[in-house]
Amino acid sequence: MDKRFTPLSQIEQIQKRQYVLEMIQQNPDWPINIVAKFIRTELHLTLSDMAKITKISLQTLQNLEKPDANPTLETMYKLLNAFGLKLLIVKK
């Protein structure tokens, strides 16, 4: 938890997680770097916290949040799966 923020109660944490999931579902066109940063900042996680939760290296997470990110499918899977999301590839 980012120490710049006061800790949330369990109910507030659940509400915040639901909000994050709803926003991501409402914006399926967001690139993965926006999704990654949105999850981390909205849940008040440090990069270190996010690395522990997702089991993705700190360096990879830093790169993932950059606009020119080019993550592997495995990295995207780890990120999304850790927060109860799935990666869906759809033919247009």
**How many helical elements?**
5
| CATH classification class | Mainly Alpha
Q: What does the average pLDDT come to?
A: 91
Rg on CA atoms, Å = 13 Å
- Helix-residue proportion: 55-70%
Contiguous runs where pLDDT drops below 50 for at least 5 residues: none
- End-to-end span in angstroms? 39 Å
Order of helices and strands: HHHHH
Shape call: globular
How would you explain this protein's 3D organization?
By secondary structure, the protein is mainly α. It has a single domain (about 10-80), classed as 434 Repressor (Amino-terminal Domain) (Orthogonal Bundle), CATH 1.10.260. It has five helices and no strands. Helix 1 (about 10-25) runs antiparallel to helix 2 (about 30-40). The longest helix is centred in the first third of the chain and has 17 residues, at about 10-25. The N and C termini lie far apart (about 40 Å). The relative contact order is 0.15. The model has no long low-confidence stretch (mean pLDDT about 90).
Can you describe this structure in just a few lines?
The protein is mainly alpha-helical and 92 residues long.
Q: How are the SSEs placed, and which strands pair?
A:
Layout: H1 10-26, H2 32-42, H3 47-54, H4 58-64, H5 73-82
Helix pairs in contact: 1-2
Notable traits:
92 residues, mainly alpha, 434 Repressor (Amino-terminal Domain), globular, Lambda_DNA-bd_dom_sf
